[in-house]
Amino acid sequence: MAKVVGLKCKECGREYPVEPLHVCEFCFGPLEVVYDYEEIKRNISREKIEKGPKSLWRYIDLLPVEKPRVGLSAGFTPLRRAERLGEVLGLENLYIKDDSVNHPTLSFKDRVVSVAISKAIEFGFDTAACASTGNLANSVASHSAQAGLDCYVFIPANLETQKIFGSLVFKPTVVAVEGTYDDVNRLCSEIANDLGWAFVNINIRPFYAEGSKTLAFEVVEQLGWKAPDAVVVPAASGSLYTKIWKGLKELKEVGLIDSVSTRMFGAQAEGCSPIATAWKEGRDFIKPVRPNTIAKSIAIGNPADGIYALQTTRESGGDWETATDEEIIEGIKLLAETEGIFTETAGGTTIAVLKKLVEKGKIDPKETVVAYITGNGYKTLEVLEGHLPEPVRIKASLKDFKEKVLAKV
Amino acid sequence: MGITVRVPTPLRRLTDGQGEVEVEARTVKEAIEKLEEMYPGFKERILDENGEVRRFVNLYVNDEDIRFLKGVDTELKEGDVLSIVPAIAGGR
Known about the structure:
The complex is a heterodimer of chains A (409) and B (92). By secondary structure, chain A is α/β, with parallel strands linked by helices. Helix content of chain A is 38%, strand content 16%. Among the domains of chain A are: 1-35; 79-105 and 209-384, Rossmann fold. In chain B, a hairpin with a 2-residue loop joins strand 3 (57-61) and strand 4. Chain B has helices at residues 28-38, 42-46; strands at 2-6, 20-24, 57-61, 64-65, 81-86.
C-alpha cells in the first residue's frame, strides 16, 4: 500500500499502523491517514482522473482504500452555475455543488460511507454501524445492504419520520436512543471498541472522513482545475469543512493545481452553533451546547473537529455565520424557487448564511463562490409544514378553473 | 462513596485490561486522584499540567457531560457512574 504510509495523531504526532483505530492511545487526539504525496504525485494526473469512473473513485489515488467495494456510483454530482440565485444575492459567479442527488441515498454521506464500508470490508468486518442524525444512518444501512453486511444504526429518537423510514427500509437494526445526537455519540463511543463492529464514524473515522475530500476534488475539476475563491459549507462536527480544505491543499501538494487561495466559510444553525460562537468570541476551544434547531442533520452540540475547523478558518481567511430556524426555511425556499433544487435544513442553513456573508461584504460579487448543498429536501418534508401556500383546490369544472385559477393570474 | 469508573480502551493498559473499576470519591477530581494512586500514570492522561481536563477527553457523570455540571468539582454520590470517553467521534 504505497500511497498510504499509516495513521498519525494530529496532536502529538505518534504513528500507528493502518488499523481500525481512531484515537491516539497517549493523548486521545484524533488519528489521521498519512499519505506518501511524492509517490502519489508520480502516479496521478489530470488526464488519468478525467478518464476515470464518473464517481468519487476517480480520485482513488488520494483515498485510503485499495479497491472500491461499494458505492461505485457515489459522488461526481452536478456543479451547477446558479445564475438566478446569484442575481438575487448579488453574485456573478455562484455555483451550487449539488449533493442532494448523490447516489444512492441523496446526501454527501454516500461519499464517506463508500470509503468507510470499502475499508471495513478490507479490514474483514462483517458488521457495520454508526451514530447518526439520519443521513449517515440512511447511507450506512444502504451500503451494508449492498455489501451483505449486518448493520446497526443508532439515531436520536426524535428524528424526522422520513429519515427513520429511509433507514428501516434497508433492514438494519435501528436503535432509537432517547436523547440528542451527542448522547447517541457518547453511547456509541463507549461500546464501539468492545463490539468488533465497524462503526464508520468512530473506529473507522480516519478513513471515513477522507471521503469528504472528494467534494473539494470534484469542484476543482468541474471548475476547469481551478480552486474557487470562496466556499460555504454547513458544519456539524466540522469534519466536512476541514476535509474540503485538506482536499484543496492536497491537489496543490500533488501538483494538480498551482495555487489555493480559497476562503472557507462555515454555516451553522443559530440553535446549535458551538463552532461559529467560538470563532466570534475569538476562542481556540469549543464550549459544547445543547442543540435547539430544526436543522437536526447538523445539530451536534459537541463537535469533534471543532478546533480543527477553527484552525481551517484562520488558515484560509474565512469566517462563520449562523441562521435562525426562520432563515433556514427561507433559505430552503429561495434555493428551490430560483434554482429548482430542493434541499434539507442543512442546505437552507448554507443558503441563508451565504446571503448574510454577501450582505456583510465578506464575499465580493465577482468572486467564484461555491455553496455546498449536502442533503435532500424530500427527506425532511415535515419542516415545511405551515410554511408553504395551500394547493388551489377546484372541482373538475371549467367554471371553477376560470374563477379560482385564471381569475387570479 | 462507591463510584463505578468506565475506562476507555486506550487506558485499559493501565487498569490491567479492566473496562470498569470501582473507586471511593466525593468529586470527579478526587476520583481521578484515587485512580492515580491505584494506577500510576492515569491522571496525566486525563488532566493537563494545569489540572484541566484534556481537550480530547470527555467526562460524564451518569451520562451527563461534566462541562454542563461543575467540571472536575462535580460531586459524586454512592452508585454514580463516571465515564471517560475519547472526544473524537461522530459526524452526523
